[in-house]
Amino acid sequence: MLYEFHSVDLPDEPYFCPQVEFNNKPDSLFFNDGVRRIDFILVYEDEDKKDFEKRHTRRETFEASLMKMGMELEATQSVNEKLMFLKVHMPWDTLCTYAEVLHIKLPIQPNDLSSRPSPWRFFSCITKHFYPNEELITKEAEFFTAPFEKKRLEYFHVRDKDVFFTAAMRSRMAYYILSRAPYEIRGNIKKFGVTKLLDAGVYKAAYPLHDCRFNVKSQEEGCPNERYLLYEEWAHPKSFYKMQPLNLIRKYYGEKVGIYFAWLGFYTRMLALAAVVGLCCFIYGYTTQETSTWSKEVCDPEIGGKIVMCPQCDRECKYWTLDSTCEASKKLCIFDNFGTLVFAVFMSVWVTLFLEFWKRYQAELEYTWDTVEFLEQEELPRPEYEAKCIYERKNPVTGIKENVPYTACGRCVRVSIGIGTVLFWILLIIASIVAIIVYRLAAFFAFSTKLRSQDLKELQTLKEYVTPQMATSVTASLISFVIIMILNILYERVAIWITDFELPRTKTDYENSLTMKMFLFQFVNYYSSCFYIAFAKGKAVGYPGDPAYLLGKYRNEECDPGGCLIELTTQLSIIMGGKAILNNIQEVLWVKNLIFRYCTSAASEKLIPRWEQDYQLQALTKLGLFYEYLEMVIQFGFVTLFVASFPLAPVLALVNNIFEIRVDAWKITTQFRRIVPEKAQDIGAWQPILQGIAILAVATNAMIIAFTSDMIPRLVYYWSFSVYPYGDHSNNTMQGYINSSLSIFNIADFSNNSKPMSTPYNITTCRYRDFRNPPGHPRQYQYNVYYWHVIAAKMAFIIVVEHIVYLTKFILSYVIPDVPYAVKEQIKREKYLTQVILHETNLKLVTRRLKPFDDGTLTRTEVNLTQEEMELDF
To answer: Where's the Anoctamin dimerisation domain (predicted)?
Structure first.
């Protein structure tokens, strides 16, 4: 029964699709008879030219197939007489048939389990203002549901046949038929599906109808005006502070859209806590930047002003004094302080709480939205997959022979080509990163030559200018952002082509495959420059007498004397902020629809029927909400992976998401045609991706604090030199730290290739950032004991922090169950009722037919008869 529609034969005689005139009811959702509801709209241009004869034939054949499959059609011409609108209606019997095919769960009995009172009920007088207006969006009654079975219709809770199947269910079933109705059969080759007809231009559009205009209530009798309610209580800017009406979103747009907005809303609420803590950490760093001992020493003319630093490039670079980085050191203290360490540990715990509580919330939505048993075997193959099933194989699960589009060898070839293409593009990203590194080296040389003074007298004024490190970091970050955007645009098409070539079986398989490809690429694309600054830059530079070179030509880039953390912060803020601004601008500027709306008068809009108003809206892309998920997951990576260097990341993400929810809501409600509703149990492949990011975030933040920030060397100095040995901590001020963190180099030991072209007459040594023995030492310029103490402290810090955080994550994931106890009870109750209501009657009939003898045995005839009857019953 599941695939009986595949046997639809093409009509031998011309079909008849009635055409009617517009009935002057612009908000009508029915055929001209006012009885049959419109479930879908097909739009085409009625061409009379011979060039379009093939299109006309395909369209006639397709529409005839729809009618043979149980649909009813009615065509009407547009107001401007250029387009034809084909209205599609599914009768009751057809709805029942395909509701069973799609395993749609429908109510069987009202929910008789008492719900637990909300812990926030005592604050209802306050919290009610943050929820949608209950007078407009009323709470629907809760029912236990079961997969629909046509022959057991009397056991389902059918109050009114017209509303038993919601508009979203009807649209979903209609699209299912439209996607599989044949339009051409030649021998063993069968062509079917409205998707291919849209690609070929046979139809210009296919969409379900919105129930009314978003800003005006429909006056039609029986219209629920759900779009109007969604706009007023969800998408309108005035409702930005209100909770989302998720049940209405799900009812109107389907579970797939509902679960996205549920996840986005939950993520945003959890971000509020992280943003508060991050903001407090930033305020603490900002208020202590002037009192920080190391920044005061850098800015002190008697300390930093007298420390002459070695040139950071060969020949052209000059000597410079440490106080020229005074302002940069103060900014660094905002982000590199003990509060950042606490915040990094907090975020590692926060991300675990976020994922665990989301699992619980998702389990509640799965039960409420009837997706608990949305299993893989219930999801039917994609039409593109079915169209290419030319090979036969035995299903390992059912043991039944089925058709597949490729052999095992062909499958391996397709996957190998896909993997190879993805690896090629990842190598292309790495090549672009190397090119940016080369730019950094060349730009630093140019900025150093321009900004460095000619003599020591002018060195004191350099602190008024931008340092070469900062100028190089900002320009390189901007260039990196531009390259990221360009590569994203190019790779997007390649990823879609590869996934189409692999030919996944179901739509979920298709989206999961594309998700992994796109995320893997964008992970490398967005984060590679951040990983370079955090863990590679300044780590292998040698020392002034023996510098390290990249490609044997470019001297490796060094960090600022305060470390590379401020550069990582700059990179994050530019990429994260620029991406958020660009995405929101793209989402808001829907010029075509805005021009159409404001140029079309209200009077003329009233004369345009509902289907023509929707035709003027934007069509949602085939990937639907894929890019919305991708944008948020990339943001989630920025918030968690590198938060130790940028405590304001959760604040920026929170502000962006508050706008993101409303912009997405406004866009989907006012700018797009109504989306074909789809089932979804969870957020799909994004769930394991988020879990992977959460695990990686612990390691990256621990390593940032250990290797990128100056936290560990300060702590080693604090406990080794600053603290008095007998417990007297009164002079615990970190004085002398800057001097201890800089090694000494004799300028006479410069090689000819690296020796500066000009050297002041009054200096014999310069300083550089490292822990090496001074000149004259038996092991001069080799790492000293303090260096190994610092390395040991860094490794110990990483091991201890990671183990503590991972243990905490494990305990939290064990203590917090994925499914709430109340939801488990309701699921068990629903399964019990399904068994009793739908199957117990048949079991009683079987028992009544079995009449045993006194010894409790049955005759062979009675047993056989009973088995046959049981087979008929079931």
So the answer is: 30-246
